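pinning this so it doesn't scroll away 📌
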Amino acid sequence: MEWLCDTEFGGPPRLWDHNITINTDNPDLTACFQKTILVWIPCVYLWVIFPLYFLYLRQSNRGYIRVTLLNRIKTGLGLLLWIVCWLDLFCSLAEVVNNQARAAAYFISPLLLGVTMLLATFLIQYERLRGIQSSGVLFFFWLITVVCAVIPFRSKILGTLNEGRVLDVFRFTTFYIYFALVLIQFLLCCFSEPPPYFSAASPDENPCPEGSAGFLSRLTFWWFTRMAIQGYKRPLEDKDLWSLNKEDRSDVIVPKLLHEWEKQKLKVKSKQEVFYTKCPTAYNITDEEPHEAEVLFPSKGDQKKPSFLIALCRTFGPYFLVGSALKLCQDLLSFVNPQLLNMLISFIKSQESRTWWGYSISFLMFFSAALQTLILHQHFQYCFVTGMRLRTAIIGAIYRKSLVITNSAKRSSTVGEIVNLMSVDAQRFMDLTGFLNMLWSAPLQICLALYFLWQYLGPSVLAGVAVMILLIPFNAVIAMKSRSFQVQQMQHKDSRIKLMNEILNGIKVLKLYAWEASFEQKVVGIRQKELNILKKAAYLNALSTFTWTTAPFIVALTTFAVYVTVDENNVLDAQKAFVSLSLFNILRFPLNMLPQVISGVVQATVSLKRLQNFLSHDELDPTSVERQKTATGHAITMLSGTFSWGKSDPVVLDGISLMVPQGSLVAVVGHVGCGKSSLISALLGEMEKLEGRVAIHGSVAYVPQQAWIRNASLKDNIIFGELLSEQKYQQVLEACALITDLNVLPGGDQTEIGEKGINLSGGQKQRVSLARAVYSDMDVYLLDDPLSAVDAHVAKHIFDKVIGPEGVLKGKTRVLVTHGISFLPQVDQIVVLVNGRVSEMGSYQELQEQNGAFAEFLRNYAQRDEIEEDEPTLFDEEEEFLGEDTLSNHIDLSDNEPSAAEARKQFMRQISVISSDGEASTWKSTRRRLTEKKKVVDTAPQPKNKSKDLIQAETTETGRVKLIVFWQYLKAVGPFISVVICILYCCQNAAAIGANFWLSDWTNDLALNRTQQQTYMRVGVYAALGFTQGLFTLTASSLSRAYCMLKASKLIHLHMLEHVLCCSLSFFESTPSGRILNRFGKDMDTIDVNIPENIDIWIRCFLYTLAVLFICCALSPAFLLVTVPLLLFYWLVQRFYVATSRQLKRLESVSRSPIYSHFSETITGSSVIRAYGRQNSFILMNDNKVDANQKSYYPGIVSNRWLGIRIEFIGNCIVLFAALFAVIGRAHLNPGIVGLSVSYALQVTMSLNWMVRMTSDLESNIVAVERVKEYSETETEAPWVIESNRPPESWPQAGNVEFKGYSVRYREGLDLVLKGLHLNVQGGEKVGIVGQTGAGKSSMTLCLFRIIEAAEGEIIIDGVKIADIGLHDLRSKLTIIPQDPVLFSGSLRMNLDPFNQYSEDEVWKAVELSHLKQFVNSLPAKLEHECSEGGENLSVGQRQLVCLARALLRKTRILILDEATAAVDLETDDLIQSTIRTQFENCTVLTIAHRLNTIMDYTRVLVLERGRIAEFDTPSNLIAQKGIFYSMAKDAGLV
């Protein structure tokens, strides 16, 4: 050593000396150690890490950072440090020159240190050039350097004080200059540089400060503090949120996952191809012996599917593994403190131990715990960010998939199920990732704990291990049962949400028929099944909690009992007992978490399967329709095309060949279900092409039969993402007859259209849909019956101005599905479809000459038409052969002529009004809210720039959750039982403390001759106290979760359901169904599952923390002094956190609904989106909505980390002070109490942390109660039944309806829609109601049903004022056949008679009279035939007939027809009209008519204009008066 160091105090130089360092009251390190090892440690660190770090910097180039003042100072200080170090070196050289011998350390250390400082200075500059704003490598370097310099700092001062003078003034001075410079460097290193130049500049106005935060700030999450303070001062708003980091955004994450998923699909595909090519002979076998082939080749279902799990792992695995590495470090560190506790108890026992050693142990415990905290929260950050990215990626993948799945695949998953994949299943993955590492970490911790326990207690530990092994199968059973309950609950929840969705979609019909109660019972029935499952799960949960509360105790008990009874020389002293106990406490977390993580994994596997199935669905073949010319001059070519809706479905279109010349207009006609809409779908590539070839040349625009309207402004719906050209836009509005509508809409073209176009009438929706197509300016137009929903004169206008030979679209290729016979002479070609085949094709003249059914009908029709005409005005106009929609206008007259009627019937088998292909509808399994014939408010045109939002932004409550919300929840639980539960938890805690004090006393109870007295009594009491604690837990947990809290969630759900069903229709028009479903789905789930768990954990943590403080104060009353500031800090941190976190949760909650609303909207309109090629813009919209949601979720994760580090700091301080007070008072303390208090204090961190987390979670989750409560307090309609004022059972007998000075408006603040109506309709009268769009026709019917209430005046039916009786009493006595036939999923019988009021015979009679008997008899299940969602498996005509059957069953005195036949074919229309005439002969009938011919034989006709009665008389009188009705009849070709 002499060559390395100088001699010390006359003796030889030593690197280590026990007498100087340990066996002394004033420890120090040798001078040699200080000059060498302490100097070399930081140097070695930097040189070892430099090569790797340099390579990393070479790879990452974020642009360079300009030279800032901070950078200059750091560089200057680095150079100064190099100079100071080498001054020492030069001093040593000078001494050698002056013949003063110096040891090697005087040259090596300053030389090495100086070069290292140069390296550090180089790194400072190189980092700047590579755009590194804050360096972790240099942070640790300066930290290590400072720590290594602190010891010489102290030693030199002590040496000087001992000597009374400074021995080496020069080195003394340079060292303190060096120390000051290093300290400043360390402090400067905590600050970060500004962002680099030339980096991808963030376009965000509010970028996340994480990117520019310093290393220390990132380590402690200090960069979040600003938001925490802001959130505390005032509730956070959307604008306060930071933008997402680039690597967390959808546009970065989703493509990565999809790329990996495609790889998986290709891998499986190539494997299958290899498998099938291995044995080609098998194909020959299959013809003769199919069963053998089946053995050789597994069926399709057995084939391997691509693994979504592997795709997820490959996408997110590497990032997640960084978190796993950190978890490993934290696990190893967690075993340091029990060892230190062992040392501390030894120190207390041994009176010879030196005091500094006790203090060192205390501070080591503190530093070990602090390091653990930092590492643990970094690990969590990595895991939770992975979870967040997982959710983003899964939602993105599902959304993209939903745009390309085939119709048959779409049928297998309802919208509700797909939305569940997005909400529930993606959420499960996100929740699991936070704790996924426990799968390997828990076993590792258990093994390490057992290893250390063996050191203390020897083989007795095996008894504890045996108990743990026995508990594993027990918990496995619990986990398996939980899984099956989980699956069952999901199924019930799915069906409940599906039913709720149907109720919301058909709410208008439910209200008109007064059917709410029946559907409420159905929902309550499903909910009860769900609650039964939840109750079983809660008992299971309580059992699980009991097991895991008592498990560590039972393990400790058996171990201690075996240890003391197996050999009487085994003494349970404080060291063994409390170190073991702290190890058992470490065991508690993995033992608690493992079953939860396993059940989480189990749930995630269920979700994984669901996701994998959905993502593996068949996709539409983009090549099924070729996009180039196939025949010269033809825009559309179809050669022997055979199509079905799915590979296994029956053929819908068979061998269709069709050539459409460019620029021609082709009409497609045929009867209901003959395949007209299917033909359009086939041209769009929406169907499964079995054989043949389809080609379309040019771009395509598509107008679907059921208009698809987005929840956006009217203008946005028309422009649909195209560039705005004002001139073209105005032309389109004019051509599509939308100008008058804009004048009456409250915000003009900026009016927000509700979900599914709910605030537009059917005709307006159809015209907007058509306007979208016209504006898009495509080459080929596929128009699926766009004229069916509009009035005859509007249809003529649209045909002339848009579709016809002189319309805006002339020169474009147009395929028009239609039933308007009058338009057929003007088309270039007519295609007649019969049962999926082309029966005739040609021009109008050609088809007449062919003398088919088509021509025969037209001849008869034209003759009769001429006889009926009074004035041949039609032939003057544009020399048309048939002018207006004459066929539909004369139906009722055709009954008089048998020959015409016969011809008509024959033709009717081929031609229909609406081509709803029933089972083959393009809109399979999509949910549609009934097209609401919405009253248009008659207001003067307003300035159009002011948008009127129908749907209000979802409100978020701000500030602290009001105590009333907690009180309401408590009331639902039951206040008395709540107190009982709290007392039970207190007893459990008292038993736990008692058991530990007993153990502490036991360890001090050392007998003479080293054996222990009363061993059995000690063990017995300890066991009794422990099991008592378990029993209290079991009772409290099962009572709270299985009984009280489920009772509460049952009441809360019922209350909301009843309330929502009682809401007025305007509530449903202005509230998106996604928002209501969110309350019934996610929020109820929170109330069912999360809140009970939060409360349970919160109470346990709170009581545990109290116990710790109680025990620590028992150790030393002085501990109270420390407790006060710590609790104050705790309270501050908690308030900052809870205020911020709660508001972030609320923002996250609100930004979640639009994702689902937009998603269900997309699924419904997927065919339109595809036809216009708008997939990318919709994907972008979805990505933006998901990112907006994650924008509020990410700060939520960070807030938990921020909180965790600060709260655990408090916990670590409690440990520090508990240990320090033990050291200070060791003279009068026994080891037992020290062991007890410190082992308890080591646990407090966890409970403090969980307590704040649960406080916040509870405040955040109780928001669900708040949100549900909000919907339980909305304004409702009048009561359903007023017991004191019920009309007689037989009311109304005559059916007289009287309006007295009746006025009405839709909502407060809007103008009147009906103004001062006075009219009297006698019983049995048939009254037709006509008028322009927005005249108030539908409003009249809504008033009769009190869907909207009177502003003034009254309606009297048979002497009873309808405003005085209950709504159900009123509505059940009126019958309506609504404009849109709405059916619900369930049996056909349920759809006719949901209350089971009528006998089987009555139902069959109604079915027969509504001309459905033949159809129902053809069904295998007859009346029990299951209708699909929205009645999709019946054609529109059949659905309308079901509505007629409903009316026939009710057979009330007053019947209202709301344009009931506007959307059915002429044959069905005729059936309905004749049935109404015969069956409702004595009833009062009010009909809103589109087709005037249907009301020409009515008693009277009421003409409305702008909400007032313009004319009211018999049809013949009105025509004679030549007023408004006359002009309408003339337009319709009736006069």
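📌 and the second one:
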Amino acid sequence: MAERRAFAQKISRTVAAEVRKQISGQYSGSPQLLKNLNIVGNISHHTTVPLTEAVDPVDLEDYLITHPLTVDSGPLRDLIEFPPDDIEVVYSPRDCRTLVSAVPEESEMDPHVRDCIRSYTEDWAIVIRKYHKLGTGFNPNTLDKQKERQKGLPKQVFESDEAPDGNNYQDDQDDLKRRSVSIDDTPRGSWACSIFDLKNSLPDALLPNLLDRTPNEEIDRQNDDQRKSNRHKELFALHPSPDEEEPIERLSVPDVPKEHFGQRLLVKCLSLKFEIEIEPIFASLALYDVKEKKKISENFYFDLNSEQMKGLLRPHVPPAAITTLARSAIFSITYPSQDVFLVIKLEKVLQQGDIGECAEPYMIFKEADATKNKEKLEKLKSQADQFCQRLGKYRMPFAWTAIHLMNIVSSAGSLERDSTEVEISTGERKGSWSERRNSSIVGRRSLERTTSGDDACNLTSFRPATLTVTNFFKQEGDRLSDEDLYKFLADMRRPSSVLRRLRPITAQLKIDISPAPENPHYCLTPELLQVKLYPDSRVRPTREILEFPARDVYVPNTTYRNLLYIYPQSLNFANRQGSARNITVKVQFMYGEDPSNAMPVIFGKSSCSEFSKEAYTAVVYHNRSPDFHEEIKVKLPATLTDHHHLLFTFYHVSCQQKQNTPLETPVGYTWIPMLQNGRLKTGQFCLPVSLEKPPQAYSVLSPEVPLPGMKWVDNHKGVFNVEVVAVSSIHTQDPYLDKFFALVNALDEHMFPVRIGDMRIMENNLENELKSSISALNTSQLEPVVRFLHLLLDKLILLVVRPPVIAGQIVNLGQASFEAMASIINRLHKNLEGNHDQHGRNSLLASYIYYVFRLPNTYPNSSSPGPGGLGGSVHYATMARSAVRPASLNLNRSRSLSNSNPDISGTPTSPDDEVRSIIGSKGLDRSNSWVNTGGPKAAPWGSNPSPSAESTQAMDRSCNRMSSHTETSSFLQTLTGRLPTKKGKEDELEKLSLLLFHEELALQWVVCSGSVRESALQQAWFFFELMVKSMVHHLYFNDKLDAPRKSRFPERFMDDIAALVSTIASDIVSRFQKDTEMVERLNTSLAFFLNDLLSVMDRGFVFSLIKSCYKQVSSKLYSLPNPSVLVSLRLDFLRIICSHEHYVTLNLPCSLLTPPASPSPSVSSATSQSSGFSTNVQDQKIANMFELSVPFRQQHYLAGLVLTELAVILDPDAEGLFGLHKKVINMVHNLLSSHDSDPRYSDPQIKARVAMLYLPLIGIIMETVPQLYDFTETHNQRGRPICIAPDDYESESGSMISQTVAMAIAGTSVPQLTRPGSFLLTSTSGRQHTTFSAESSRSLLICLLWVLKNADETVLQKWFTDLSVLQLNRLLDLLYLCVSCFEYKGKKVFERMNSLTFKKSKDMRAKLEEAILGSIGARQEMVRRSRGQLGTYTIASPSERSPSGSAFGSQENLRWRKDMTHWRQNTEKLDKQTGYVD
């Protein structure tokens, strides 16, 4: 104890007991008082657990068994035990947006595809704590909810608000006398002047029973009943909640994983009209980001041609599918910016002549001149008809334009009408009908870049706008690439745009742009699946357009998507011999080499069939080296083989009809195999082109391979540039992820060798490759890791609990998988900072745990839980701790354990020995563990163990710590598949070798070290929540949710948990000053973990874990110069634990305070032996209920901790803890407020039991009376004396409660003693106190009133009877203070308080600015104090205060000294010093 600091020694640990001991000499004539003091004094004497340390908790499970409640049912019964439906495991079908689930059509799929489909379709596995919303984290007494609940209260009218002002009262009375009034208006008192009025007035109604004799008790009872009638049941509903941020104990339910959408924009294409109508025109829309130089959406194709124009193409176009007739589309933009353009491209039917020639008629002919140019138009129509008949399936580029999207959004948002029409002209020339307007407000906006900020990029709230695009630019045959387009778009925003000087094609395109509705009807996904709310399939649909985000989007896959986009870019046939000028490329997706093997998987464009087997690029007339701008969209098969490939066939199209000349002539061939070493082949390609048809078996080879006997264009050089992009939730497109999944799937199929890249992996080196692939996951790109996060974590979790057997050896992958998980979640935490909640929990990981994770299905021979059957066979080793360990695996055990920790010696030992040695090196306290049996430790393998029973038992446990068995089954089957339903579960469990993930996770966490341990600590919440959900699933599927808690989990698992909690508590204590942010997260994570464990584990065991945390914190506090940070962490820790929905039940509210069965000395026996005045056990129990005695703190464990924290922090001698007053008071206020509104405790009898848990609060608040804010102050005069010396007592008796009256009220005779001071005791006369703020004082007082209102009146009366005169006086003055605090003082007082509050907030802001800017230092602060200004502490004697009572008027020039603890004046009066803190 020598090293304890002064503050720790000065803390009043048994304050009330000391008080009684000090007064006992004065009250020697009162046997009743001496009896009470002696009992409490003896309790204090015989128990050596101060308030600063936690007591040993009662074994809650044993207590409930040995103290059964006599009540069979009812509210009291519900208080003693958790409800049977407390925890539920719910399998909730995931919400599907589409009418038909997005799954592949193929029946046979490889294991990886099957895993992905299962991951996207299986039900959510949710663990629900049914009563969780009744915890303090969801306290309904918030400001908004209080206003709702107070609406039904009757309106009160107060006399103080109705009374006139004092200044005007006399004038009003004189005026009243001068006024002539009628008889009806005359006050009754004036009727006496008129006998006539008196005789003719009606008598008052008689008061019944006025003169009856009624006993005083009956009057008291009637008054009591009337007081209780129509009273609001909930006290805290009438009291404003404290000003608090988001409660630290609130854990929000994570969002359901769902498909990502950016801000959604609805674009409706209304009409497209040219000056002349001679042929069909085909249009497409897409979004481009100029800054990122990226196309950010797929193409939307729409057809606005008239039926007459469509008829020209009837020979070439099959009947149109309804899905290709869409004229409206929904675009998604994740990263809206000022650089986004909506680009519209137009195509027409191929005809003879270049683009300029074909566009010329559209530029020179006007609609107004149609009559004059009739013959020319007829000729043009005839030519167009011929071209449509002959070349109808070929297209040529025609024109384009662009809309600066943010200009439209910002201009539409600034207009006042609900719908606007905006005309956009990209050139100086306008169309002939450009003057026509359909709206009175027309905003003409150029395409220059706007200067508006981020608000202009909001696409969710602008007003719908109708755009009329009047000018198009003709396409230039040599500038069709995307690079050219980006240059054009960048140029459009310049005032002197080159494009403005070009001659435009005049047209009129009308489109509507508006924010997309949340649930649009008749909508199709990019895969053409119907989104829900699709009443009629014959209605023209709206297409959802797939986004290609400008930057990475970190959202896990939740739906099946498998699309391929092909972008032919350029072709160079300049060196090709022969005629090849009008070139088109036919693109086909082939599953074999025969021409009939083309698959109908290419999406149609507009007014055509839904899918086709081929797609053609547009033709640039007479160009041997054309550029292309096509986008060809393909629906990829779920399972690809080596024969799947893209085939490109190049044709020369004969535009002029000649005899014996075919329409199209093949001029080249090339291809791209879809798979390369098992991976999807995507990216940029520069391919050579063959002049001849490819030979047989070409599809498995790349065209770069020089095949013998083949002729190539330009000597086999790359002449065709094409880009292939996949948007897939099947193919990861990351080499590290691909390798990991491929190896796991190879284990499933048991097919060796495995070919990955250029490597052939044999079974004998599979182990090293698997480990290296797991460690290499940290190297993979974050975006694909997040997209496949759910499947990846499932696989890693499986490898922790289910390591495979390869070549007869157990491959222990637990450590590698645990390390990979820790690394992945840390990467997510560091890179996705915007996705964290207030506790630092990443929302993606929280959603995975809450919805996706489930206990792995571990029975190897069970049928597949997912769609389809799982084949293959492989050997496994289970890490489950089964009761019987196969002898055949003894030899392999040492090898399998050697990888778990490099620090462990090579001698083969049990995992328990591993844990024991590591914990021993870290100094963990596992005194309660079975490992410490007192006998010899388990002997190494091969040696003879000690014959003692203890060591034999330890040896048996060690042997069974890790068991292995070999099975034949599918590896993938053991993945976290759909768990068996309750039906038939009994049959399955007989065969089920249950795998306990939580046990393996705890073991891996305990034995890990170094960087792995640090990574796990950084994100401890993830592993804690994973462990808890695994525990609940284990209990649920083994029907143990109703089992006794002591038998739910094995002792060795509880040892691991104890070791884990102990080491983490040690980390918090040792690192809280260095890694503040991390320690705060770790502290809350540990608290939430223990809170969760209270719902599933032995609650007495969890209490012991809480005590071990308290023990480590307490031991550290003694050596700290400033303990407030660590105490604040402990308050957060305690508040989270006490937010448990069954907090009251955990405190045993129905138990009587009997001496606990523990190794500590028996309180009752000590009391009975030493008490010389009373042996009444009932008196002792009553006293214990109102004191923070050891029995109280043991049996009401959590409530004892809360009240102990309150008592210690509010103690005036507790140095450095003043800043925590508000925090600890808010914790108590929040608890009581939650109890008050809890529907489970609405019954008065139940509420009395709950209030019993807080009876010591009365004594604690009584001790703080000198520190409470003085609410009795009126006109700056203190109405309540803080301290009265004995000599002044009689003179001050007018403002005090008479002690004679007080003792008479308590029913106790008045002792003939010297009258002591009202509040101040001799032992505390030298203290200086810090006054609490008004808010904190008010919160404390409302808590006191709640306890007094709801506690058992008999118990309260008994305790009041035993109070000393001094304490009874203090209690009555405390109640007087409550009246002053909560009485209604009138509207004017409230208005003055509001103005003061506003002024205070301004002062606080000024102080905060000064603190941030550093304008006030220690020297300036001292100068301010010396001048009598507001300082940190102003110490003044009440007798020397200015008449106004101001705390700031003292002119005592005092230098603040930290070592000055008392300041005395040379006066005989026992004045109390009070320090005021602003």
